[in-house]
UniProtKB/TrEMBL annotation:
Species of the source: Agrococcus carbonis
Protein's recorded name: Conserved hypothetical integral membrane protein TIGR02206
Residues that span the membrane, as ranges: 18-36, 48-69, 133-154, 160-183, 204-225
Presence of the UniProt keyword Transferase in the record: no
Keyword vocabulary terms for this entry: Membrane, Transmembrane, Transmembrane helix
A Pfam family reported for this protein in Swiss-Prot or TrEMBL: TMEM164
InterPro entries cross-referenced by the UniProt entry: CHP02206_TP0381 (IPR011737)
Length: 261
């Protein structure tokens, strides 16, 4: 078993810093969504989102490489096995390529699994508190704002095929994380034992009961997140936006706004 390096300090949940980040997140999300919906050139918006995706991908890879350096390596954090670690790469692909599978994963993971970081952040400071604070929140906020912009700004809608595909991908990544935990003794994805710090999982009982309840909630909440987009006449008849039928494109909301004006 590898030894974990304990952080020298942690961010206090719902302290001044946390509250400030939550307020900033709401403001950033509202401004980004408003900018996309008010824009008159949809292609220009998509190009800007692609650039944002490339920036997110580069920052993600650099941040991952930083934790891999011998001076900063520790087994509990350095391997990119958390769901949010892979989510950042997937979100970048969604912004760059508008791939259906990536948009679907970004939507379901970004608006649920990623939210735990906002409600009960597990942010420990190991070497560079300022940098670690900034990167933690920038990457989590990006993973939250991107699917909101793609779905409510550009009109991409998840389908039941997307729901099932993301469930399968989630199970696959959970298997990878559990295997990694078995080898390293770490707890990526909080799948192998209780997190050890206060979290939303505390409401679901002790491990492994919490994992079973989490599975039930994921099935139910993701279904609830899919159903509204598949029942409306206009949305259900919108053209499929990818070969596998994982998302539909409900027109261009920007174009519809211009037509009304």
């Amino acid at each position: 078993m590898f030894l974990a390096h304990e952080p020298v300090a942690r961010m206090a949940p719902f302290g001044a810093e946390h509250i400030a980040v939550l307020i900033a997140t709401v403001a950033i999300t509202a401004l980004a969504l408003a900018a996309v919906r008010r824009a008159r050139d949809v292609k220009a918006v998509e190009r800007w989102l692609a650039r944002a995706g490339w920036a997110l991908l580069v920052v993600t890879l650099l941040w991952t490489a930083w934790w891999m350096l011998p001076a900063y390596w520790h087994i509990e954090e350095s391997l990119p096995l958390h769901f949010t670690d892979v989510l950042r790469v997937v979100t970048a692909v969604a912004l760059i390529a508008k791939s259906g599978w990536a948009i679907a994963v970004s939507y379901f993971w970004g608006l649920t699994l990623n939210l735990q970081a906002f409600v009960s952040p597990d942010l420990g400071y190991h070497y560079a508190p300022g940098l670690e604070f900034t990167m933690f929140w920038v990457l989590h906020i990006a993973a939250l704002v991107a699917p909101i912009v793609l779905v409510w700004g550009l009109g991409y809608r998840p389908t039941w095929a997307g729901y099932g595909t993301v469930l399968a991908l989630t199970a696959g990544w959970a298997s990878v994380a559990i295997a990694g935990n078995a080898v390293t003794g770490a707890n990526y994805g909080y799948l192998s034992r209780d997190p050890g710090v206060p979290s939303m999982l505390d409401l679901l009982g002790p491990w492994p009961v919490s994992i079973l309840w989490e599975l039930v909630l994921v099935l139910a909440v993701w279904a609830a997140m899919t159903w509204p987009w598949t029942t409306g006449r206009r949305t259900a008849s919108a053209p499929v936006a990818d070969r596998l039928g994982l998302v539909r494109r409900h027109g261009d909301l920007v174009t519809e706004r211009i037509r009304v004006v």
